[in-house]
Each structure stands twice: as C-alpha cells, then as structure tokens.
Amino acid sequence: MAEEPLNLEEFAALLPFTPETLPLAVGWLLAALRPGMPRPVAYLTGEQGTGKSTSGQMLAGVIEGARAPLRQAPETLRDLGPTTAAGWVLALDNLSGMPGWLSDALCRIVTGDAQVTRALYTDDDVNVLTYQRPVLLTGIDLGALRNDLAERMLPLELQPIPRHKRRTAGALWAAYERAHPRILGALLDLAAAVWAELPHAAAELTERPRLADFAELLHALDRVTGWHSLDAVTGAQDALNDAVLDGHPVAAALRAWALSPTFPAGGWSGTMTELHDLLGDRGGKFTKGWPQTPAILSARITHIAPALRSRGIHAGRVSGSNKNGKLWAVTYTPAP
Ligand SMILES: Nc1ncnc2c1ncn2[C@@H]1O[C@H](COP(=O)(O)OP(=O)(O)OP(=O)(O)O)[C@@H](O)[C@H]1O
Ligand SMILES: [Mg+2]
Question: What is the mean pLDDT of the segment spanning 76-97?
Fold first, then answer.
C-alpha cells in the first residue's frame, strides 16, 4: 500500500477491544457501511462491568451518531419492527436469553427477508417489514443459541477492565465525542481502500463460510491492513459452535456417544426408532428438551447436522430400509 489508510488508533484507545477482537469490530463496522449485504450479528459479551453497553453504544455510534442510544430488547415480534426502523443499526442492550422468535427474526434481518405480521386492530391487514440491517447485541450469556443464528454471529468477547484503566462514563463520552469525526473519517478512508481491494479478495478466496460476503470483506481488510481478521472470525465461530452443541440435548447426546468406547468403530446404521431408543437409554430421555418421538429426533438431527459435521460427526439418511423404517447412519471421523 502506497499510503497508510489506517488511522484507527483513537478508536482502539477508547474501546476495550484486544488485538484479536479489534479487527473483527472494524470488519463489522465496514460491513455496516456497505449496503445490501448479509452481515454478522455483533455480539458483545463479557463479565459484568466489562464495558459491553458502553462499547456497544460507541461501536454503533460510529455510524449512528455519537449519542445514539442502545435499545431494550423488544418483548414480541410486533415490537421488533418499530425498534428496527428507529435507526440504521439495530442495537439491543442486555439480552438475557434468546427466545426462538427473536432468533428467527434476527436471522431474517441479517439476510433481509420479509417479515409479515398482522396489522393491529384488523383481521386481514398485514404489515410487511423488509429490513436488512446491521445488528449488534450485548449480553452476559445468551444461553443455548440455535445453529442458524450462531452461524451468523460475530462474538466479540470483552476482557475485564483493570481498575487503573477504568474511566468515568463522563470522561469517556467526552473523549469519544471529540474523537468521533476523526474515527468516522478514518473508517471511511479504510472503507475506500477495502472496497478497492474487494475484487482481488474475491478472486483469491477459495473457501467461504456461511456469510460469504463478509468473508470476502474481511479478506480484503486483511490485504489492506496486514491483519488476520478472517482467521480470527473462524476461531471465534468455532468456540460458538461448541457452545451451540453443548446447549443442544440431541447434539450433546450424539457427541457423547460418538466419542465413547461403545460407539461402533465403522460407524452405526439403523432406523430412527432404534436411534431414539439407543440415545434415550444412554440418558437422553432424562435430559430437558429431549425429543419425545423418533420423528422429532430426526428433525432435530437434521437441524443441528452442520454444527455436528464441523466436529467430525456425520449423521444423516442413507439409502435402504429395514422392517422398522428407513436407514440412517452416524459416523465419527476425529479431526486430524
Ligand atoms: N473503554 C472503557 N475504558 C475505560 N472504562 C470503561 C470503558 N468502557 C466502560 N468503562 C467503565 O466501566 C463502566 C461499566 O461499563 P458498562 O456499563 O458499559 O459495562 P457493562 O458490561 O455493560 O456492564 P453490565 O454487565 O452491568 O451491563 C462504565 O460506567 C465506565 O465507567
Ligand atoms: Mg450493560
């Protein structure tokens, strides 16, 4: 690069990101500036008092304006529309869990799919909301995430702020407001350099994860800055993947079985009824949320299959059947 476009020192000094998470936060900001692309959901997490709310507001505020507030999570799908429409970035503070409807809605907001709800006080009028927005969440623990949302998440873990580094909210915000125009300017300079690199990055990438546009953008960012943001995001998502598997009773049961000495060396095959009995007897049926029927079990396995595959466990339909039904196979290949 002839000219150094990166002048984000002020941003790095104000926000408590680490050398690992700073490139990801910058990548998220760049994606938020670029219209019409699926972007990952920035998820700021960390212990109590690690600056999640402050950093979330500052991160969104680079684009939204220095004083744009974070919002409380809406209670229903109907309330999500106005919350989303209120700004460009949908930034929700202090999430303490991830209800299924919100998980679905966030997946749709990431990809820009339409969302239809019945209009208030009518029987047949509907509101169609089509939003594709950058999303940012803060929270200590979202609990068990569904795989489809986890694949769209960009976890940014904040480290505890040492006492000698903690600053008062007043001093921090005054400094942020002074630095804001320069931070935004530096980000836009960086964006111009990254946009110019995008065609080369796209040509160079051979593997693309779920959010392929974002992967190309990070690769272009790495080419401009010399960072390793694409590797960092793969690592961060790997950790999230483990959390998804641990929080999913079917995935946890399958994984425990596949790693146990009783798992057949060449893999297992049989019907879903047999698998339901087998995993149930291994303790599955005593777990909360265990599928009551083989049909539900097969749906849950299909749902979690991509996350299991990334851990070397392949579970799916194979050709053939026996007197009890169609055949499934489970195999385990430990990662090299
Ligand atoms: N980047 C920072 N540098 C120094 N001090 C900070 C920084 N960010 C926040 N603080 C200080 O830490 C305090 C707590 O920050 P904040 O409320 O954002 O944390 P939190 O993780 O959201 O907390 P909670 O878990 O209670 O929601 C702030 O009031 C501020 O004094
Ligand atoms: Mg907070």
Answer: 87
